[in-house]
Design brief:
alpha/beta
């Protein structure tokens, strides 16, 4: 008797501070697949975890330093780097931790989400979870094909 392999739903967590996601970025294989976008901004048509964006003195310093190329490069070496600030905001949010604990694939479509995705992959690995982590949507599409094969 021919038995069809059961297709299990895939949970994809996208670490994108700027909310870079639409359905064309990462088409779902089935209606059971789910995508969660972790971002500082709301994202339409998908489950989004909107993090609190840092404000106050640190934000004013970042805006002032972002005006010149040299200052922007120096900023990358400090705790005020946008990727580091996104990582800290994601770590503080229990919703992000729960989504990552269940994730089959973590995607960082932009540079500022890569640090958070890398830290998530390391933490999940220490917890015994073998979660695939990718940078960019083309690599993520290929990873989904491998996960579901």
């Amino acid at each position: 008797m021919d038995q069809k392999a059961e297709v299990r739903p895939v949970l994809v967590v996208i670490m994108s501070p700027n909310g870079l996601f639409d359905e064309a970025s990462l088409p779902r294989r089935s209606t059971d697949d789910s995508v969660v976008v972790v971002s500082f901004v709301p994202v339409d048509d998908v489950t989004a975890i909107v993090l609190h964006r840092p404000t106050g003195l640190s934000e004013r310093v970042v805006r002032a330093m972002s005006r010149t190329a040299v200052a922007r490069e120096m900023l990358r070496l400090t705790p005020l780097d946008s990727g580091v600030r996104f990582l800290r905001a994601a770590r503080r949010d229990a919703r992000v931790r729960r989504a990552l604990a269940d994730a089959d694939l973590v995607v960082a479509p932009e540079r500022d989400g890569a640090l958070a995705a890398w830290h998530a992959a390391r933490a999940l690995g220490r917890a015994g979870r073998n979660t695939v982590t990718m940078f960019g949507y083309p690599a993520a599409r290929a990873a989904i094909d491998r996960i579901t094969a």
